[in-house]
Write a structure and sequence with these properties.
about 80 residues; mainly beta; ATP Synthase, domain 1; 7 strands; about 70% strand
C-alpha cells in the first residue's frame, strides 16, 4: 500500500507500508492491504506504520482526516 502523511507544514511520510494504525475519533483502527474505500475523522494520538521490512515507525498527530482508496492512504493531519 502507498501511504502519504501530510501536515500544513510538510510531508511527514511518503512510501510503501504493510500496515497503518490510526487514532480514529472513536478509537484505534488499522488499515491493511485491499481495505475497503473509506473516509474517517482522526483524533489525537500516534500513527503506527509498519514498513514492508517489518519495522515500525510512529508519528504524533493532533487530529485530521484519512482517505483510503485503491490501496492508497492519504492522511491530512494537524
Amino acid at each position: 500500500m502507498r501511504l502519504e502523511i501530510i501536515t500544513p507544514e510538510r510531508h511527514i511520510y511518503d512510501g510503501e507500508t504493510a500496515l497503518v494504525q490510526l487514532p480514529g475519533s472513536d478509537g484505534l483502527f488499522e488499515i491493511l492491504n485491499n481495505h475497503a474505500p473509506m473516509i474517517a475523522a482522526l483524533g489525537n494520538g500516534k500513527v503506527k506504520v509498519q514498513n514492508p521490512d517489518g519495522k515500525f515507525e510512529y508519528f504524533d498527530i493532533r487530529g485530521g482526516v484519512v482517505e483510503v482508496l485503491d490501496n492508497k492512504i492519504l492522511v491530512l493531519a494537524d
